[in-house]
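User: I'm new to structure prediction. If I give you an amino acid sequence, what do you actually give back? Let's try with this one:
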Amino acid sequence: MRSLKELLETSEPAWPLVREWLGSASNPVEVLPRDEAAAGEVLHQLQVTTRSPLGAVAHETGGLLVDGGWLRVLGGKGPRMRGSLATWNALGPHPAVASTRGLLLVAHDVVGGFFALDGGALGEGRGGAFYFAPDTLRWEDLERGYSDLLAFFLGGDLAGFYGEYRAAGWSEDASRLSPDEGFSLHPPLWTAEGKDLTRVSRRAVPMTELLALQFDIARQLDGDAP
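Assistant: Good question. You get back a string of structure tokens that encode the predicted 3D arrangement of the chain. For your 226 residues, that looks like this:
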């Protein structure tokens, strides 16, 4: 295992590039404050260097809130968002969820969608980005890596990507949640009744609860969860 000093890339750090992306983002984005000591621990547990955008986000931020908090990009632990890249991937002494071997969770959204990089559980293990869609309970190949995924979050057509999930007043609803919460929907989006968002009720629950519930249902239906 590499030391934190070895992981802190100094000659070509990715943070200046990521900061440029943040500055030119066309989607609203908020950089959450980090806990410096905790961010170092997260980086060490991930074993990625700050030469990569993933490592830069892990070490330099407490996470990112995109589109008014609809989408949450995981970073290092901070005062605003307790879940980090380490805790969400069952790394270190205080995991937030059960181990998800063969993938790395990197972001989540308010309706219970999860973004992950493939480490072998979802495909060929080459780090490609996948989305666990709450309306199908299946992993969808996004055909991009982490850098392209982050660029899409910051400047892509999120309205088009999420169009069918967003009921009237979605922005106000999302802003009321903490970054560690999401909506438990009833009926769920993966049911026929849940397709009509005007008939769907929303209840705030911890995101960890949504992950456990949806992965469990996916396994029961057809095993499409790690």
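You can read the tokens as a compact description of the fold. Here is one thing that stands out. DSSP finds eight helices and nine strands in the chain.
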